[in-house]
Amino acid sequence: MTAFRPVSFVLNGKPAAVTAAPIRRLAHALREELGLTGTKIGCDAGDCGACTVLLDGRQVCSCLVPLAQVEGRTVVTVEGLAADGRLNPLQEAFHLYGAAQCGICTPGMLMAATDLLQRNPKPGEQEVLDALGGVLCRCTGYRKIVDAVLHVGDCAGAQVVDPEAGQAVGARAAKTDGVEKVTGREIYGADRAPADALWLRVVRSPHWSARFTIGDPAALQATHPGLVKVLTAADVPGNNGFGIYPDVKDQPVLADGIVRYRGEAVAALVGDYDTVHGIRDDEVPIAWQAGDPVQGFDAPLAAGAPQLHADKPGNILAHGFVARGDAEAALAGADIVVEGDFETGFVEHAYIEPEAGWARRVGDRLEITVTTQTPYMDRDEVAQLIGIAPEQVRIIPTACGGGFGGKLDLSVQPLIAVGAWILGRPVRCVYNRIETMAATTKRHPARMRARYGCTGDGRLSGFDFTGDFNTGAYVSWGLTVKDRVPVHATGPYFVPAMSARSRAIFAHEPPSGAFRGFGVPQAAIAHEALMDMMAERLSMDSLAFRHANAIRKGQPTNTGQLLQSAGLDQCLDRLRPHWTEWRAAAEAFNRASGNGYRRGVGVGCMWYGCGNTSLSNPSTMRMGIAPDGKVTLYSGAQDIGQGTNTTMVQAAADGLGIRMSGISLVWGDTDLTPDSGKSSASRQAYVSGNAAKRAGENLRAEILRRANCSEMARIEIGGSVSVRDGDAVREIDLSLLPELSNGDVLMAEGYFDPPTTPLDRNGQGSPYGTYGFAAQIADVEVDVELGTVKVVRMAAAHDVGRALNPIQVEGQIHGGIAQGLGFALMEEYVPGRTENLHDYLIPTIGDLPPIVTYIVEDPEPTGPWGAKGIGEPSLCATAPAIFGGIHHATGVRVTRAPCTPDRLRAALLALHRSDPDRRPVSD
Ligand code: FES
Ligand code: FES
Predict the structure, then answer these.
(1) Which ligand has the nearest atom to the CA of 186?
(2) For residue 678, which of 403, 897, 905, 901 has the smallest C-alpha distance?
(3) Taking Cα atoms as reference points, which of 669, 750, 622, 645 lies closest to residue 378?
(4) What is the model's pLDDT at position 770?
(5) Which of 471, 467, 478, 505 lies closest to 299, judged by CA?
(6) pLDDT tens digits for 869-907?
């Protein structure tokens, strides 16, 4: 065994020494040998910057620094920033400005900013962009990070408040878990596990389509004593299939003799870290017989194509359909009809935190500590995989370092569960960047055709849509996408007659799943392009055309639902001044420009049904008071960065009538919290917000009843409960009350299930309790020689019903715009080719323009204080707005996302050839 000399250095101001291989990565040494898990690992390849630390005062990616290189030098990590337990001014600014959402990038951002501020205490914006350019954030859209760095030491502009009792909802309250995120104390999936945990590494298929057999692993174990077990399909004790629908469990934990995509799990090596990561896949005795994969749309649908699933002929998973009126007749009678074909590719979630967690068996129960968006669904899935009751599984969520829908499907959970269950030892697993990208779900590629018709005076009259959505190898969320798209396919407009058909298609590609919008962002590209085309044919301003046709309260949606909240017209009103000014400026620029650049301004609109489509999707919240007066909200609503740990406390506080700072939060743990449903489909503010409000109100009612006080009474909770009703003060002596099973003495629950109905065979019904609306405009600059597009500025107006916390709403809008910008201009996951963060591009801090944000509050009567959702709506309008800007600038109508420079350059050339009067582009 090699003996290593200790490497000595100064760490966070104190001497430190690590005895490990000289080539050990500093990031790993910090996390594993020294226990400083504030330094994160998102890629281990120098691409994401999550591991940024200071080495002799300058920022470095610690995943690229060999341990030997720090001998005698100084290293500062995020743990070294706070002095005497107090946040330093930069951490304070991040906390108050809401610069941390999921928080996984926050340590890296803080260290990069510290490097800058040490050299330049008053940097300008461009200097901030340059200094932080090496750290990726997938949540925030970077704008609040820039604001925080620019305002260090001067946080007055943050306008953060500590709201009085009864005034928490609507307040710009800082995150309840924000301090953990800016100090590096927050614990994510890869940060902690028992010291004796075995490691699990997945062996994955190198083929898109194949049959295989696994031989006896005895020889492998004989040559690798640290290999404890090779798990195969035969080791799964229960049903070797999972999926998000109760009646569809088609994806195996470990493939059983057949694989349907490259990256599918076929075996798992369990043992010590070095052994399982040192064994090459080709050492595992697997005999492969590769088949012919069918990929994309045409090959799977071709006559005689290989079938991925025997019970799904033609590789068609399912059809979706919504129709109102006679769309064909309406289009035949329309004064103007426009049509187009549109296409989008796979998009990767690219959360900075890879999938990670650990599991242990405790008697006849399993405990799984894991990053997830959906603790209760994980619990039920694992139970059926192991063959035990759901109550025998406990999910303990860690902080979630970004999800965006990608952590709704299972990843490490079933593997570590099987390992821990059959071996009786803790088992942990952390996906590396390549496998998180190769093996987990994506946004559905779409191929769509749509026609829109209107009258000569600019009223929409008919619409027809067909769309295929590639769901990859397994069902995942394919059934949801095929249902959600037709409901939303027209866009947020009143259309008297419409028809929309969708199909979910299987292919030998990664499963497509949930990704911020469930098909709506793809469809928005189609309907918004057609809206622009109709406005152009009418010689009508395209924003005014949308305003005239925006669906209003009282008008039926495509499914015949009458909305009680519909604020698109108000959103457009807020944007109109920018629209007018920016369009005029762009046109003036173009008249003056002779340097190969063109400016343009586009508008995009969207709507989004909040919650699961036509399904019961309830949430339950619980509040309790302990004998010492401690008030606790038990919330199962998983915070994935969007801020539910804060907004649920705000809602509960106002329901009860005390300050939010008087409420402790227990979140996520399925043994300790009720089921609040999934953090998906923009449902938590609306659904769980209602449940939290009602939990508070019900606890308040219980206190008032015991105190025999009126509704107007004021509640104060310290060591006891005081109720002040006019001049009278009544006390409830908590010490006299019997303890409940969890130790509290007072308890109440709140429950809400959105009012939805099933859709009939024509897709008519009320699929959602409410809809969010938005309009965004994008001012873009196109380099017509290179085909590159820079988004110069954006304005976004979102109808959220009521902003429970405006900081969180703004953060969601910024983050959604960032992902929408990536979707529009750069992000395309090419299976087998872009499985890392240097080939797969996501927007950096330099790609995000200034964003003007307007929060419109058209209250939803069934929402808590009128609130609706914002998570998914924030993204859906961005690509259409950018594409509208490109058309305004160049005349090119973008029909395929992403609009990469090569595609735009080709379109510009084609346009020039067909119309030489257009601005010349050199061949
Ligand atoms: S983990 Fe080091 S750059 Fe990504
Ligand atoms: S807050 Fe930056 S990645 Fe989540």
Answers:
(1) 2
(2) 403
(3) 669
(4) 96
(5) 505
(6) 998 899 999 999 999 999 999 999 999 999 999 999 999
Ligand 1 pocket residues where CB is under 6 Å: 27, 41-44, 46-51, 61, 63
Q: What average pLDDT does this structure show over 50-57?
A: 98
The model's pLDDT over 285-296, given as tens digits with 9 standing for 90+, comes to 999 999 999 999
Q: What is the CA radius of gyration of the chain?
A: 28
Write phi, then psi, for 184 (nearest 5 degrees). Answer: 80, 5
Q: How far apart are the first and last CA of the chain?
A: 63
Lowest-pLDDT choice from 406-420, 427-441, 609-623: 609-623
Residue 430's closest CA among 401, 390, 471?
Answer: 401
The answer to whether the CB of 493 falls within 8 A of the CB of 557 is no
pTM over 0.90: yes
Res. 159 pLDDT band, cuts 50 70 90 = low
Question: How many Cβ atoms sit within 10 Å of the Cβ of residue 456?
Answer: 10
What residues does ligand 2 touch, defined as CB less than 6 Å away? 100-105, 137-140, 352, 402, 641
Question: Which whole-number Å values give the CA distances from 91 to 14, 78, 149, 547, in the listed order?
Answer: 21, 10, 9, 43
Hey, what's the torsion of the CAs at 589, 592, 596, 597, to 10 degrees? Answer: 0
Q: What are phi and psi of 799, to 5 degrees?
A: -85, 105
106, 91, 145: which is closest to 123 by C-alpha?
Answer: 145
Mean residue pLDDT of the chain comes to: 95
Phi, psi for residue 691 in degrees, rounded to 5: -65, -40
Report how far ligand 2's centroid is from the alpha carbon of 500 (Å).
36
881: helix, strand or coil = helix
pLDDT at position 385: 98
In what helix (H) or strand (E) does residue 358 lie, and over which residues does it extend?
Answer: strand 356-362
Q: How confident is the model at residue 917 (pLDDT cuts 50, 70, 90)?
A: low
CA neighbor of 598 nearest in space, from 793, 846, 780: 780
Question: Which of 630, 652, 660 lies closest to 161, judged by CA?
Answer: 660
Ligand 1 pocket test target in 25, 39, 60, 63 with most atoms within 8 Å of CB: 63
Nearest to 642 by CA among 608, 695, 606, 684: 684
Residue 536 is given by DSSP the state H
**Can you read off the two tokens belonging to residue 427?**
């088992």
